[in-house]
Design brief:
Chain lengths: ~110, ~110
C-alpha cells in the first residue's frame, strides 16, 4: 500500500525541548517537503529536499532542522529555538513538477 | 511569502448547487494545483493544470487557468455535503526547485 506516513499523529513538547517528527514514503519520489499550517491559514514551507543528502530552506526555516540520509525518509526536528512551535505539520513528496502526495499530519502542542 | 490569494475565504451553499472558488497569483508559473483538506487531515490533490493549458476536467471538477490575468478558478458542480472541506490553490514557479506555494484557502460548507 503506497503512500506517505507521518508519525506521531499528536506530539506534546515541553518548553526548551527538541522534538523530531517522522516522515516516510514508499512512492520512490526524489522530492520531499515539510510545511507548517496554523489555524485557518494556508501552508508555509519549512524545508524541502530534491534529492538524498541535499535540502534547502523554505520560507520559515528558523528553529527547524532536517536531514535526508535516505530517499524514503525526511525527518523534521523542531528545536528549542522555535519560539512558537504549536501548529499542524505536513510532510509531502512528489515526482518532479507533478502533484504532491501529503501525509496525514502531526499536530504539535507546547505544554 | 504567499503567492496565491483565494476568494472567497468562505462559501456556504446548498446541496446540488455549484461552487466556484478563485485563485490569483503574482509571478509566472510552471503549473497550478488544487488541493482539498478535510478538517484536521492531510491535503488531497485534485487537479494540476499546466501554464500552457486553459481548462481541465475531473469528474465534477472543472479548473480554468488564465495566465494573462494570473488567475485560476475551481468549479465543483452539483455539490454534495461530502464536498464540505477547505480548498487550496498552489503554484509551482519556474526555477524555484519544484516547491509549491499555497494560498490561504477557501472554506466550503455544503448544507444538505
Amino acid at each position: 500500500d503506497g503512500g506517505i506516513t507521518q508519525s506521531p499523529k499528536y506530539l506534546f513538547r515541553k518548553e526548551g525541548q527538541n522534538v523530531t517528527l517522522s516522515c516516510e514514503q514508499n512512492l520512490n519520489h526524489d522530492a520531499m517537503y515539510w510545511y507548517r499550517q496554523d489555524p485557518g491559514q494556508g501552508l508555509r514551507l519549512i524545508y524541502y529536499s530534491q534529492i538524498v543528502n541535499d535540502f534547502q530552506k523554505g520560507d520559515i526555516a528558523e528553529g527547524y532542522s532536517v536531514s535526508r540520509e535516505k530517499k524514503e525518509s525526511f525527518p523534521l526536528t523542531v528545536t528549542s529555538a522555535q519560539k512558537n512551535p504549536t501548529a499542524f505539520y505536513l510532510c509531502a513528496s512528489s515526482p518532479p513538477g507533478e502533484l504532491f502526495f501529503f501525509g496525514q499530519g502531526t499536530r504539535l502542542t507546547v505544554v | 511569502s504567499q503567492q496565491g490569494e483565494e476568494d472567497p475565504q468562505a462559501l456556504s451553499i446548498q446541496e446540488g448547487e455549484n461552487a466556484t472558488m478563485n485563485c490569483s497569483y503574482k509571478t509566472s508559473i510552471n503549473n497550478l494545483q488544487w488541493y482539498r483538506q478535510n478538517s484536521g487531515r492531510g491535503l488531497v490533490h485534485l487537479i494540476l493544470i499546466r501554464s500552457n493549458e486553459r481548462e481541465k476536467h475531473s469528474g465534477r471538477l472543472r479548473v480554468t487557468l488564465d495566465t494573462s490575468k494570473k488567475s485560476s478558478s475551481l468549479l465543483i458542480t452539483a455539490s454534495r455535503a461530502a464536498d464540505t472541506a477547505s480548498y487550496f490553490c498552489a503554484t509551482m514557479i519556474y526555477n524555484q526547485g519544484g516547491k509549491l506555494i499555497f494560498g490561504q484557502g477557501t472554506e466550503l460548507s455544503v448544507k444538505p
